[in-house]
Amino acid sequence: MGISDTMTPYLQSLLRFVAGLVFLQFGTSKFMHIPHSPISGTLAMSASGIAGVIELACGFLIAVGLCTRPACFLASGTMAACYSITHAPLSFFPLLNGGGEAVLLCLVFLFLSTAGGGPLSLDRILFGKMS
Fold it and tell me: Element (H or E) spanning 26, and its range?
């Protein structure tokens, strides 16, 4: 067993934590203006507002590693919808349509929805499982 075999689960937890924080910032920007951005002040009952609620809830759950698999599955679907509705109509290429982050988050969350949150997660601490 090499060092990569030993470190992989911990790097999986780091990936989960960072992706959760990146996802969470979209929700905090929409509703709490932290950080303030062009999406700040989104109406809660709009499509972007519903996505913002998912970003807040799932972003927090993913970052702390609680209910990781279902939260990641919902977050992955949200990012797929975001890309197809907002970015894809502008251009085929993510570089040109500004959707690179949505594509990457979608795939990271899809991976985590099957692989789990890793050893450094509340799921592991509270329930003794890596989900």
Answer: helix 3-32
